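Work Package 3 (structural annotation) set out to generate three-dimensional models for the target panel prioritized at the project kickoff. During this period the team completed the workflow that converts sequence records into discrete structure tokens, so that structures can be stored uniformly alongside our sequence database. As a representative example, we reproduce one entry of 302 residues exactly as it appears in the project archive.
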Amino acid sequence: MISSLISLYLSSLLTKTPQISLTQSKSSAYADVLTAFSVPSSTKSASTSTATSTPTGAIDIQASSYLAMDLRSNRILAEKNTREKRSIGSITKLMTALIILDENDINEVVKIPIEATQAPGSRIWLAQGEKITIKDLLYGTLIHSGNDAAYALAIHNAGSVEKFTAKMNEKAQKLGLTQTHFGNPAGLDVDNNSSTSYDVSQLGVYAYRNNFIRHAVATAKITIISTNGQFKHELKSTNNLLEKDPRIKGLKTGYTIEAGKSFVGIATVKNGSPILTVILDSPDRFKETETLVDWVENNFIW
């Protein structure tokens, strides 16, 4: 009898669909904030371990696409147009950071090329020839959403923006982001830089596994300095909710004319349970993120 039960258990492990792990080693540089929580159930079926009915109550969200997902179970709790391809703006920088953290040492020193200083849009105002660490450029990319910082990292890693972008698309395919295409490391509206809210949610889950990213996106303000102390860059997070709503722990904003105002966020709701939210092309991405988090809290229990 016991041997039969063991056989059944091992069989279930082998056939189970793999999920992205959200845990980190105990020796990680930053404390893991995603621990095991109960699977949410709708308030209409609180006695069961998983929801068996659809929560009621309209969500007052005008975004073109949105999604809320429980990070414990990967269950989608709310959604709209999640498979519709759209520009995602600087949410793109999560992939840029992932490749750099996979392939480079954060203590490497980068000499800023002129191409990076000429990046359009949001910048941290790097100077040509300035020497600065990869760690600080990642802060500039993830906290202040500096396009010049993202371009400097890409050129340092691959020799050119084009070669780095090819790496981004290769990694997207490896991660199963089948509806995602990157055109550049910053998220500019060129060369079909697009994704869906579902793919963005999966990218967000994967990025939030990384301890450095988790630390950076929870940082509201920081000053970074070139290696010789000549240049200082005051960075302020583009995520306005970090200092406003204690439930919000990150993650990344995005904005271009084509993408509109967008945000992929991590929030802790009842009993500290973590959820991920995606808001794409919103008239007010932060207000609508809070609306989505409120709705989840009102319609599910853990």
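The first strand starts at residue 41 and ends at 42.
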